[in-house]
Amino acid sequence: MPASALMNVMTQAARKAGRGLARDFGEVEHLQVSVKGPADFVTAADMRAEKILFEELSRARPGYGFLMEERGHVEGADKTHRWIVDPLDGTTNFLHGIPLFAISLALEREGEIVAALIFNPASGELFTAERGKGAFLDDRRIRVAGRTGLDTAIIATGIPHLGKPDHDLFLRECGHVMSTSAGVRRMGAAALDLAWVAAGRFDGFWERNLSAWDIAAGALLVREAGGFVSGLNGKQDMLETGGVIAGNADIHRALIDVLRECARAA
């Protein structure tokens, strides 16, 4: 299927920002041995990528607003459209030379996500979706996995790190999912986790304390790949609450039940 004008705009912006991130990623290995470390360098790489995305998307669609990780809310003249942008999801992976990080772009129209793109500059994989048009990895249509039970499912998650809340709750949840599933994976980039659910690589995913830019693009990808995505309570409030569950119909429901059982046991 030929890409739409909108998707061409998003793809060109992501690839341009991605070229800079790929160059910067190649430098991280050399910075690991420095006394200061690469943290400042990675912050600069993040901000350079966001600047490119802001400029490219603003030029192509003047007046659209933005919600961005670094710049926050940027009001636009067009109140019906808003870009939701994460220029570098998986910053810690990037910092440590792990090639699992992504640019995440979503377009919100009148409160609904209508287009999504997740691009990994290290691998070159490009995940895209538009509402009602399906989800794609490069030019190939993708679908969520068809497994129906947790006992055969691989589930992705995000582990709360230093400074994040809910460690004890996560340990209960993870222990329960580990005891009922075929395995749990922690990749370190929520946008890619959701993209991989859409592609059928992971059967399901859950995480809490995320930001809207971590979730928005991946949520549409999962839906357009035939899956279900919601907040931890099963409601469509994940962009507000930062909690998300994704999978096919059966895995999505099973994960909701597991998390509710863990919450009751608290």
Please, could you describe this protein's structure?
The protein is of the alpha+beta class. 42% of the residues lie in helices and 24% in strands. The strands form 2 sheets. An 8-stranded mixed sheet has the order 2-1-3-4-5-6-7-8, with helices on both faces. A 5-stranded mixed sheet has the order 10-9-11-13-12, with helices on both faces. Helix 1 (5-31) runs antiparallel to helix 2 and helix 5 runs parallel beside helix 6.
Q: Mean pLDDT, nearest integer?
A: 92
- Given the helix and strand composition, which structural class is it? alpha+beta
| CATH topology grouping of the largest domain | Fructose-1,6-Bisphosphatase, Chain A, domain 1
How are strands sequenced across the largest beta sheet? 2-1-3-4-5-6-7-8
Largest sheet: 8 strands, mixed
Tell me the CATH superfamily of the largest domain.
Fructose-1,6-Bisphosphatase, subunit A, domain 1
- What is the end-to-end distance? 49 Å
Number of helices: 8
The domain tally reads 2
What CATH first level of the largest domain would be assigned? Alpha Beta
Compressed to H and E, one letter per element, the order equals HHEEEHEEEEEEHEHEHEHEH
Looking at the overall shape, the CATH architecture of the largest domain is 2-Layer Sandwich
- Which range does the strand content fall in? 15-25%
Radius of gyration from the alpha-carbon trace, in angstroms:
18 Å
List keywords for this structure.
alpha+beta; 266 residues; 5-stranded mixed sheet; 2 domains; Fructose-1,6-Bisphosphatase, Chain A, domain 1; D-Maltodextrin-Binding Protein, domain 2
